[in-house]
Specification:
ten-stranded mixed sheet, globular, four-stranded antiparallel sheet, Rossmann fold, 299 residues, single chain, 19% helix
């Protein structure tokens, strides 16, 4: 069942690594505890739900929520309930509003995946706003939609193509890379398959399969785009809305100086060690940014 994931307790990634090094694998293991939003605009609700269902069935994520909007948009506060967002469009939408709020979300360093028809150059279904204007998205429109059958011409050994052997696709866009974006794979007509710029990934394929035009491992491609390990920094700098603070404390059961430069803070009543590289304010409080966060679940 697709549901909204419950909010869970978060610790900074450097702290988690220091306390539990070797206990949690990187990459997909972290993704398995993640809350994912599938957001479509102008698509049928049942089609959006279908995308969410196959992502949930992949076993790579904790909870997947699927929602369709028309010309309305999400607020940043609503998007921040999720660790990852997969966005795609079909017909109508809010190009500027959606592009602006998706850029704000990308600024936090969380994984954002953008898909067809975001670069269709067809009006209401084509993204605009900061995400496009500031080259945060790895692709920009370079023509219009390509309603032609394509297959994989080339791919690389990145995790985007884990368990992806063949794909026959149809709905994709004519796109170009923005500065700083890295292409991964090509379709048989020469168009890119995937591109990445920082924590933002673009997949040049429509994620739905309403008309049966796709076949092969396309579902796994979208799951991989979300689950692949994201870099620790966003595409561009920006304010992080949900910072948390913690006051300094001493852990009585351990030496006052366990290692040079390491001190302790108390987060939610739990003393934890802090590495020297962690940022502090002038008052000595620790700033935890979402881009450094790893989600912990109570079993």
């Amino acid at each position: 069942m697709l549901t909204r994931a419950r909010r869970t307790r978060r610790l900074a990634a450097p702290l988690f690594a220091f306390l539990f090094a070797g206990l949690v694998a990187a990459g997909n293991t972290a993704a398995q505890a993640s809350r994912v939003l599938v957001w479509s605009t102008g698509d049928a609700a049942e089609s959006t739900y279908y995308v969410g269902a196959y992502l949930q069935d992949s076993g790579l994520f904790g909870k997947v929520t699927a929602k369709e909007t028309g010309t309305e948009t999400f607020t940043l506060a609503e998007l921040l309930q999720y660790d990852m967002v997969l966005y795609y469009s079909n017909t109508n939408g809010n190009p500027v509003g959606n592009g602006d709020v998706l850029a704000d979300y990308a600024d936090t360093g969380r994984r954002l995946v953008v898909c067809v028809f975001s670069w269709a150059n067809q009006g209401g279904n084509t993204l605009a706003g900061r995400l496009i204007n500031e080259d945060i998205c790895p692709f920009k429109a370079a023509g219009s939609s390509r309603y032609t059958t394509v297959t994989i011409a080339s791919l690389d050994d990145t995790s985007f193509f884990n368990d992806v052997a063949t794909i026959t696709g149809f709905y994709h866009d004519a796109v170009a890379l923005v500065p700083g974006a890295v292409q991964h794979g090509s379709w048989s007509d020469g168009e890119p398959i995937v591109a990445q710029k920082g924590n933002v990934v673009a997949v040049n394929l429509y994620p739905g399969d309403d008309l049966g035009n796709h076949s092969g491992d396309f579902r796994r491609l979208f799951a991989n785009a979300l689950a692949s390990a994201a870099p620790a920094t966003p595409v561009r700098g920006g304010p992080v809305p949900d910072q948390a603070t913690a006051t300094e404390a001493t852990l009585p059961s351990l030496p006052a100086t366990p290692a040079p430069g390491i001190r302790f803070v108390t987060i939610a009543g739990v003393p934890v060690p802090v590495m020297p590289a962690m940022a502090t304010t002038s008052t000595g409080t620790l700033q935890l940014r979402p881009a450094q966060a790893v989600e912990l679940r109570r079993l």
